Amino acid sequence: MRFDIITIFPxxxxxxxxxxxxxxxxxxxxxxxxxxxxxDFAHGRHRQVDDRPFGGGEGMVxxxxxxxxxxxxxxxxxxxxxYLLSPQGVRFDxxxxxxxxxxxxxxxxxxxxxxxxxxxxxxxxDGELSIGDxxxxxxxxxxxxxxxxxxxxxxxxxxxxxxxxxxxFYSGLLDHPHYTRPRSFRGMKVPKVLFSGDHAKIxxxxxxxxxxxxLALRPDLLERQKxxxxxxxxxxxxxxxxxxxxxx
Length: 248
Hints:
Order of helices and strands: EHEEEHEHEHEHHEEHHH
CATH topology of the largest domain: Alpha/beta knot
Number of strands: 9
Number of helices: 9
């Protein structure tokens, strides 16, 4: 899978993929990440990529010409996807990350300043993506987030693919609690079921705890779920605070 990032500050992304899982995937040729300087596609002595907005107002706006030329030069096929990173975009989530992982190429345009000429949004890209309801100084950090999240769903990138299926949001719920050695730390004990050896009971416990955590921290996620009768029963057993009284 190939990612292409269009930015006016390529140096901001020079080192972010130099470690971790993404670096290993790049070395194994499972992923490609290319960073393009938008100014390479601008014309004139000053390679201007922005201008004042028509109608007046503060700040500068990215011009359409260099962005169109950049995308037209970089996009490899009709199956390639192009997204503008913008606080006005669709909220990026795990489901969208999985869908993007199926594309052969994803082109990410890093917004900046007061925004991008509307003709880019309406006539060039497949959509706009936002990583949250806040404004960044530019789309570069968002590009890193998107690539890191999508890469986890590309086959072979994560060594143990089962761990991806257990991630928060993969099943629509938050992840269950995790424990490791020692069994007791400062009086805080690991739930006995986790070293019982009964895998059916462990799966049931993890499902219950995932539901409990989701209800407590992100109840909005449950509204999107088609809950089974058993899961509804589990949710009904929790207190109003979203926690059960199960002893550890």
